[in-house]
Structure formats: C-alpha cells, structure tokens
C-alpha cells in the first residue's frame, strides 16, 4: 500500500467479543437476585451477541427497515409488513434464548424473570428493535391470565421458545407473538380518552366476542399474531363508559383474516428494525379480556411489565455505550498516550461506568420484585413504588449516557459505520414508551397516596443500607420528607431522588466500595454534577475502571 494509505492509530474491530464475560456487575447482579443457575445460558448468549455474523444481522435489519404491503397485485387487502430476513433471524434467536414469555412457563425455575432481565441487558448490543415484540409477548401474560379461556388457548403458544414468522392463523403455529394498540390521536398517554367502540357480536362466534370500530395511533409490532386493545362497549360516540380490554387476533378461528387495516408505518427516529403502525378497526372481531369497563386496570398489568423492560433495556444501552467507549479509548492514542490512560478521559469513563452499574443494579432488583410480587407483599410494594421512579430516572439518563459515550469515540462515533449513531437514536425511546416522564411522576404520586404499605416496603429497602454511608443517610432523610408530603409540581424531583437513593442503597450494600463511594459523592449531592466526567478528585477511578471493563484494567 502507498505510505499515505497505511492505517495507524485506529482501534481494531471489537468483534468477536463476549459482553457477558466483560460485565462483572451483571454477573454479580444475576447471582445476587437469585438466578445464578442461569450463568451458562448468559454465557452462551454473550458469545452470540458478540459474534460478527450476528452483529451483521443487526446492522442489516436496521439498514433495511420494514415495508408495508397494503394490497396484493390484484388489489386485495394484505395489511402485511415485510421484514428483512435478518430481523426474523434475530427475533427467532431471542425467543429461543428465552427473552420473550419463557419465564412464565410452569416449569420455569425460580429466578427466571431475573435471568431474562440479564439477557435483555445483553441483547441491545445486537439489536433493540426485536426487543419490542419480545417485551409485549412477555408482558401480555398477566393480562391474559385474567381471562382463563383465552389464556388456555394463547399462553402455551406465547410461552414457547419457538418463533414462526409465517403469516397464517395462530392455531396452525407452534409459537405466537403479541402486540398492543392502546393510544389514539386524541389521547396519547391519556388512554381513557378512547374513541374506539365495541358492540356485542351475536353470530355464533365462540367466547365473549365483539366488533370493534376505531383508529389506533400506535400499534406496535403489527405482524404479531394477536394484540390487546382498549375500546368502549357502546355504540354512542358521546357515551363515556370506561374502556374495556380486548384480544384481537390477526386471524379468526375459521381461518379468515380479521379486519386489521394498517394505514401506515411510523418513520421513527430509532428502533428502525421494528415496525410501528397506525391501524384501523372496522368491524374487527375482538374477545373481552377481564371485566367489562375495567380495561385500563386489565391492560395496565401488561403495561407494568413493559415498564420493567424499559428500565432493563435502558441499562443495556448504557452498558453497550460504555463497552464501545472502553474499547475505542483503550486502543486510540492522542497526545502521546492511550486515551484511556489520560486523566480527563478516565474521569469520563469512570462516570459512565458508575451510571451503567447503578442502572444494572436497580433493573435486576426490580426484576426480582416483579417475579415475587404475586406471593410476597414486600416485593409487591417495591414493584409498585420503584417501577415509576426507576423508569423515570434510568430512561432519562440513557440519552445523556449515549451522547457522552459517543463523544468518547470522537468523529469515529458519529459516522453510521459505528454502532453509536444507532444507539444514540434508540436511547430516548424508553423514556417515551409506556408513559413519558410526567406520566411516571404522576403514577408515583398516586402509588404513594393510595398504597402506604408500598412506601413502607421501599423504606425497608433503604433501611437495609442505613449507617453505611452518611451521604446516603442524608439523602434518604430528605427523601422521606418528600414522601410524607408529595407535591405534584415537584413530582419529578421526587422520582429522581427516590431512584438514586434506591441505586445508592444497592451499591452501598452490594457494590464495590469504590463504585459506591463515587456514586454517593456525586448522585446524592444536593447539587449533582451536570455532565459526565466531573467526579471528585478523591474518587478511585482506577478501581472503578478495572471493574468496569477488561480493556480499562
């Protein structure tokens, strides 16, 4: 090669790599939260998520987004979405590895939901778009369980490890995936502002069936086999009867396609490999799930589990950004030394590592609460209070974390050949999906007022770390005053304070001393730092970085 084309001072390709073996905090969290038995599964998934061939599938699925086919060449309605083959490969691998509804199987061991959460943290290093249908297939189970006849029909297919992408009736398939269609143009997060109507169906169709008419502004993963949606059981447009919840299959029991008219696919900022759509119901057949007029309560069981995945997914994005930054700075030289050896960069990397580890800790703790909530009142209380706080804060931190991690790569991180632009575009999603920041803050206020026993459960979690760090004790004292007199105008501050106190308590109890000390010195300060990379001089960055990633040891 000519001398001008010799490539120097560029990092080697990161792949192949093993994100599981690189992540000490994830390994410790898996064991701490009761799923150490799943370590071999995580090890196998780690090899897959760092495999160059699978990473290429992730790239291809995102560079070739889904296409809507409304009609066939003869003019018949199709209402189908065509995906790149790589998308089906990825979704199939994720379901096979248990990222969908496998933890709900009767034979699933204790800790299965924690193990799934740990896998979910690894998966974004391949692709995030396929997480959407896996999340909804996972989250639909508690809502469907309220309707035993539908549960008996659908849950065996939802909880299998088989993925069948064929567009055909679900009863002909071994596995099924689920979607959700809640929001409408006029309501958005206010799902009670629902204009879709349902009227009883009296043509011999089995079950409690209805015909729905309406338009859903967001329908996620529209090629799923079935969906949950809300509609009012009335034909009067002015009737404000509370909405009910319905299961809407793409195919009817007799093999006919249900009326499910896809109007368009959303052209989204991120999540490009996955399709999101608008859909119209025109005498669309749906089956009642749960009690009539109690649809919000029924579907909120599904929403709660999708919010868990918002936290877990955001933790996965942070880990991905940190790993890419660590790899680049460990191999790139500037001003006579590796970037990772220079004090300012080490401060940035250590700060990113703190945020990533804190997010991982609270995500796995929350997964344990979800797993045990049905039988343990304490865990139910933790779930109720910690979910909106963690979703609010961890998802708010993800875009800032992605931006700083991208900056560590400089211009190399800004070009589309890098994984960082895709990560950056993806990072705001979970803060929006299933209730934005204000919705989470308001949900937290409602939980505090209506469920004092849940506040007591969180108190117990914080008490377990009492006396270990004076800064944490002071922050918890302030938090308790805010919990005693919650004010809507300061609900965001309350959600943030609660989330960082829970993270601090987990790190003080279980984390490395250097990590816990630096976290408490910054995140629990009265005026937290505004940017990553401003750790106090006494922070043990060497210890933090040695733990964070092998490339930084």
TrEMBL record:
It is an enzyme of class 1 (oxidoreductase). The keyword Nucleotidyltransferase does not apply. InterPro entries: Acyl-CoA_dehydrogenase-like, Acyl-CoA_Oxase/DH_mid-dom, AcylCo_DH-like_C, AcylCo_DH/oxidase_C, AcylCoA_DH/oxidase_NM_dom_sf, AidB_N. One of its GO terms (molecular function) is 3-methylbutanoyl-CoA dehydrogenase activity. This is Isovaleryl-CoA dehydrogenase. Gene3D superfamilies: 2.40.110.20, 6.10.250.600, Butyryl-CoA Dehydrogenase, subunit A, domain 3. Residues 9-165 form the Adaptive response protein AidB N-terminal domain. It comes from the Bacteria. Residues 179-283 form the Acyl-CoA oxidase/dehydrogenase middle domain. Keywords: FAD, Flavoprotein, Oxidoreductase. Its cofactor is FAD. Its EC number is 1.3.8.4. Belongs to the acyl-CoA dehydrogenase family. Residues 293-448 form the Acyl-CoA dehydrogenase/oxidase C-terminal domain.
């Amino acid at each position: 090669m000519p001398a001008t084309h010799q490539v120097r001072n560029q990092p080697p390709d990161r792949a192949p790599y093993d994100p599981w073996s690189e992540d000490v905090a994830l390994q410790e969290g898996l064991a701490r939260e009761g799923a150490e038995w799943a370590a071999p599964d995580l090890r196998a998934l780690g090899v897959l998520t760092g495999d160059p061939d699978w990473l290429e599938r992730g790239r291809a699925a995102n560079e070739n987004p889904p296409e809507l086919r409304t009609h066939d060449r003869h003019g018949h309605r199709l209402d189908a979405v065509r995906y790149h083959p790589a998308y089906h490969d990825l979704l199939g691998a994720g379901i096979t590895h248990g990222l969908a509804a496998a933890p709900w199987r009767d034979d699933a061991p204790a800790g299965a939901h924690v193990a799934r959460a740990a896998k979910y943290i690894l998966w974004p290093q391949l692709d995030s778009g396929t997480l959407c249908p896996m999340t909804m297939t996972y989250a639909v189970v508690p809502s469907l369980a309220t309707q035993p006849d539908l549960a008996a029909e659908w849950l065996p297919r939802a909880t299998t490890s088989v993925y069948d992408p064929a567009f055909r009736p679900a009863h002909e398939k071994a596995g099924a995936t689920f979607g959700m269609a809640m929001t409408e143009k006029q309501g958005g997060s206010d799902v009670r502002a629902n204009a879709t109507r349902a009227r009883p169906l009296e043509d011999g169709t089995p079950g409690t069936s209805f015909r729905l008419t309406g338009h859903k502004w967001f329908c996620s993963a529209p090629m799923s086999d079935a969906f949950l949606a809300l509609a009012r059981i009335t034909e009067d447009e002015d009737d404000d009867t509370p909405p009910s919840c319905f299961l809407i299959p793409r195919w009817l029991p007799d093999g006919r396609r249900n009326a499910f008219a896809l109007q368009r696919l959303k052209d989204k900022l991120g999540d490009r490999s996955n399709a999101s759509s608008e859909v119209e119901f025109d005498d669309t057949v749906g089956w009642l799930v749960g009690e009539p007029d109690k649809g919000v309560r029924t579907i909120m069981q599904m929403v709660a589990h999708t919010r868990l995945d918002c936290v877990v997914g955001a933790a996965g994005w942070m880990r991905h950004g940190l790993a890419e930054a660590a790899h680049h700075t460990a191999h790139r030289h500037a001003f006579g030394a590796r970037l990772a050896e220079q004090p300012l960069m080490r401060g940035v990397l250590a700060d990113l590592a703190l945020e990533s580890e804190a997010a991982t800790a609270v995500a796995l703790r929350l997964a344990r609460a979800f797993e045990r909530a049905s039988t343990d009142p304490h865990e139910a209380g933790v779930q109720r209070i910690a979910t909106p706080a963690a979703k609010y804060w961890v998802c708010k931190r993800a875009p800032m974390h992605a931006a700083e991690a991208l900056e560590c790569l400089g211009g190399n991180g800004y070009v589309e050949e890098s994984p960082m632009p895709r990560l950056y575009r993806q990072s705001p999603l979970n803060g929006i999906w299933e209730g934005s920041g204000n919705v989470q803050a308001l949900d937290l206020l409602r939980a505090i007022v209506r469920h004092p026993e849940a506040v007591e459960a969180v108190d117990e979690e914080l008490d377990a770390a009492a006396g270990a760090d004076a800064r944490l004790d002071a922050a918890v004292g302030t938090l308790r005053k805010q919990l005693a007199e919650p004010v809507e105008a300061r609900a965001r501050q309350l959600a943030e304070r609660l989330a960082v106190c829970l993270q601090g308590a987990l790190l003080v109890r279980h984390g490395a001393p250097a990590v816990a000390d630096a976290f408490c010195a910054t995140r629990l300060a009265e005026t937290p730092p505004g940017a990553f990379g401003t750790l106090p001089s006494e922070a043990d960055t060497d210890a933090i970085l040695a733990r964070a990633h092998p490339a930084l040891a």
